[in-house]
Amino acid sequence: MVNSLIYKKSNIRFLSILGQRGAFGYALTELVKEKSDIIALTGDLCITSGLERFYKKYPDKLINAGIAEQNLFSISAGMATMDYVPFATTFSNFAALRSNEQIRHFAGYLNENIKIVGFGAGFAMGMFGTTHYAIEDISAIRSIPNLTIFSPADCLEVAKVTEAAYNIKGPVYIRLTGVMNHPIVYKDNYNFEVGKSIRFFNGKDIAIFATGIMVSKAIKLKKFFDESNIGVTIFNIHTIKPFDKTSILESLNFKLIVSLEEHSVIGGLGSVIADNLCNFVEHPKLLKIGTKKEYQKAGDYEYMLNANDLSNDEIYMKIIEIYNIEGEKENE
Amino acid sequence: MIKKSILNELNKHSYNMRQNIIELGYQAGRNGSHQGPALSLVEIYNVLYNYILSDSDLNFANFNRSRVILSKGHGALALYTALYECGILSKSELFTYEKNGGAFPGQPSKNILKGIETSTGSLGIGMPYATGIALAYKRRNIDSKVYTIVGDGECNEGSIWEAVMFARHYKLDNLTVIVDRNNMQSDGISKEILDVNLKNAFLGFDWNVIESDGHSIEELINAFSNNISGKPKVIIANTIKGCGVSFMENSKDWHHNVITDELFVQAKKDLEKKSGE
């Protein structure tokens, strides 16, 4: 970066306490010091999107569009035409769903240089309930051309994708998940490349493709697999689009591929992987793990993960069950 | 008062635009075209491109130019024929209208050096975008204007009103919205489909509201020059859908339709007659 201080080891704990949206606001506040063409816009969610400090330091660099998301992204497109680099924030579902056509039109069709920052994805909004959950957002915008889609694994990676989004001359959707005190995946600075997944471990039995906060969950499960003598490799898919096809090539000889996301299994990361696997005549079975197909009754974040069978135990059991079935097939 | 010679010149442009709109529509054949919604816009587009915009505005490489955004994309024929009248498009370019894979489809496709500022077609998209440009002009201290043309039917879209609120809050007095109030929309008479008092609505949002005869060049020119500091402006231009062609006027059938050989002859006759009046 610009300001590499943000990636300092000593900063990582601080960022994780802020959570993904706070880390975004922090990163943008650092980035704008050197990039005068950045402009932040929000749909009445300045504080909620972690931009309070940004606004205090640069009050004239934040435009509040009020509770009007369609307009938020249209205004952003107009600003982008005039060589601003707008970062527009709202809840993920309001961005991807309420403003879906604006995103299609301005980001997809016209390739305007807008950065769509959707936060509170998955079940992070807890007691706000189903209206505020975003479990269809990737699905809703993945078919739109030109967009880069980021889904960072932890707060350091949020800073990385924020900088990367600025550097991309084209539209970007940043999907922010989780709440405050976000699990840390990267304890030290690391090399981030757009569209290049990051591999953890070198097991040869199960390849787990995870995105967002689910990357940290997958890493936590590693020790359980170790105990069962099952080798796992985990791919952090921080860039949903363009998808890293080499990660698929590296997984073709595994016994099982698993996708893990805080998103619907229809149209999300699991579908991305399926879309790629279908290019190969022979490939491992794909187990797609994501949110349930029906909306569950609202609850806090942990409750919602449990209600969607996304607790660590449930995830592990699901994987083992399918892994064993696949193993039996092989032995036949 | 506008000089007689200039008025005559502008009237000639209006006549040419209507002729070309009909010819292009005829040429489009079975694809059909949006004739009615372009014919109501002729004087508005004529005044903008042949009177209001300066030569430097019509230099589309000039980043700081005043810009015109056609939010009601189905008015494309008025835009294309106006660009021809002011010398941006050649006749051969103009007559690629609605050719497969061409640069000038039924609704505008962004092509800045050819005067097409952005793509529109889906309603309620262009006007909020224009509002964003107006905000950027303010922030960059660019002393140019942004004009955007919406349909009265298009004002059914909620996204228009989001931008209306926004423009007033940010005091975008460099923004002019022109409502092509032809009182009709795709399904027929607006009053019967969704009855909206647009004047009161814009007044309610505290805009500078001006009503004008949308086919009177003099009234339109006056309307464009009437500004209030700190307020965005709307010109509610009272127009006739299909203006100038007898069988198209106030007819929902000519929102989008195919011109047959007989009707083409009839339309040309009507335009001759109108120019003689």
Give your account of this protein's structure.
The complex is a heterodimer of chains A (332) and B (277). Chain A is of the alpha/beta class and 332 residues long. Chain A has twelve helices and twelve strands. The termini of chain A are far apart. Chain A has a seven-stranded mixed β-sheet, with helices on both faces. Chain B contains eleven helices and seven strands. The model of chain B has no long low-confidence stretch (mean pLDDT 96). Helix content of chain B is 42%, strand content 12%. In chain B, β6, α10 (217-225) and β7 form a beta-alpha-beta unit. Chain A binds chain B through residues 63, 65-66, 68, 70-71, 74-79, 81-84, 101-102, 105-106, 109-110, and chain B through 63, 110, 118-119, 122, 124-125, 128-137, 140, 158-159, 162-163, 165-166, 169-170.
Nearest-integer average pLDDT of chain A? 96
**Helix content range of the residues of chain B, please?**
40-55%
What is the rounded Rg of chain B? 18 Å
Strand content of chain A: 15-25%
Residue windows where pLDDT falls under 50 for at least 5 positions of chain B: none
- How would you describe the shape of chain A? globular
Largest interface: A-B, 22 and 26 residues
Report the count of strand segments of chain B: 7
Strand content of chain B: 5-15%
Helix content class of chain A: 25-40%
Order of strands across the main sheet of chain A: 2-1-3-4-6-5-10
Oligomer: heterodimer
Rg over C-alpha atoms of chain A, rounded to the nearest angstrom = 19 Å
Q: What ranges of chain A have pLDDT less than 50 throughout 5 or more consecutive residues? A: none
Total DSSP helices of chain B: 11
Main sheet overview of chain B: 5 strands, parallel
SSE string of chain B? HHHEHHHEHEEEHHEHEH
Q: Sketch the topology of chain A as an H/E string, one letter per element.
A: HEHEHEHHEHEHEEEHEEHEHEHH
Discrete helix count of chain A: 12
Structural class of chain B: alpha/beta
Largest sheet of chain A: 7 strands, mixed
